[in-house]
Amino acid sequence: MPITANTLYRDSFNFFRNQVASILLLALLTAFISVLLNQAFSPDIEQLKILSATESDLTSTAGMGIQEIIQQMTPEQQIVLLKVSAAATFSALVGNMLLVGGMLTLIRLVSEGQRTSALRAIGISAPLLPRLLLLLFICTLLIQLGLTLFIVPGVILAISFSLAPVISVADGKGVFASLKLSCKLAFANARVIVPAMMLWLAAKLLILFMVSHLSVLTPNVASVVLTALSNLVSALLLIYLFRLYMLLRV
Fold first, then answer.
1. Which of the residues 19, 84, 95, 141 has the least number of beta carbons within 10 Å of its own beta carbon?
2. Which helix H or strand E contains 84, and what residues bound it?
3. What is the largest CA-CA distance in the chain?
4. In terms of pLDDT, which residue wins out, 98 or 71?
5. Is 189 helix (H, G, I), strand (E, B) or coil?
6. Cα 34 from chain centroid?
7. Which residues, 6+ apart, have CB-to-CB distance to 207 below 8 Å?
């Protein structure tokens, strides 16, 4: 029987509905960790004032590209900007690692008939986390490079690497073996992977659009809420991809 997107969507939502409490806790916990790490490693208020001190001068750079804007900054501003970017990247990477590791472990245990929780899933996934961290770092780096050079290569790389975390957790394969197999399977099953990835990207963009409508919340609370919503979208995609890979292995 051929694998259809409708079947995968139905199975994914059924799993999500049955495990909604654990998935919500996992999304909130990893979001809180991401925001906490970002706050811990971000520059202090005094350093951030360096960026805002010449904000009025940067209004004239509206038509410039990102590289030109950075070149207009002073060395002190560039260093602070680098620290802000590094803190955001590191916190997001750690949060994604915990989310992916915990979520895929949760799916695997539940599929095997075991009762588990979000905290237990994260604990069991601990031995996998270093490999997942390296895998997600490589994927993020290559995808960001692709998006920076031109949007299409970044999207293609995102689709190509979509199954890599699932393969790494489900089969215990190494980083590069997972990436290689993911590329092979993703292109062979593009008809069921591409629509899911496009919906995932659209949902992520919609969540980013919601930032301007959460002004009533404090910045930290808004960050946790938005990150948790983003994690829920990613959790649904992970369920979908895990189910697809299980069917491909049969």
1. 141
2. helix 75-111
3. 63
4. 98
5. coil
6. 11
7. 226, 229, 230, 233
Alpha carbon distance 26, 241 (integer Å): 18
Angle between helices 75-111 and 164-171 (to 10 degrees): 50
Helix and strand numbers (H, E) in the chain are 12, 0
* Joined tokens for residue 73: 């900054």
Contact call for residues 92 and 34 (beta carbons, < 8 A)? yes
Pick the closest to residue 31 from 92, 106, 107 (CA basis). 92
DSSP 42: S
Half-sphere exposure of 29 (CA within 13 A, CB side): 18
Q: 173-186: buried (b, 16+ CB within 10 Å) or exposed (e) per residue?
A: bebeebbebbbebb
Query: Is a pLDDT exceeding 70 seen at residue 56?
Result: no
pLDDT at residue 144 tops 90? no
Q: Tokens 């010449």 appear where?
A: 54
Helix, strand, coil fractions of the chain, as percent rounded to 5? 85, 0, 15
Query: Model-level pTM?
Result: 0.88
To the nearest 10°, the Cα dihedral for 6, 12, 18, 22?
A: -160
Q: Hey, is 215 helix, strand or coil?
A: coil
CA distance 10 to 192: 13
Residues in the chain: 250
pLDDT at 161: 93
Query: How many CB atoms are located within 10 Å of the residue 23 CB?
Result: 25
pLDDT tens column, 109-125: 998 888 888 889 999 99
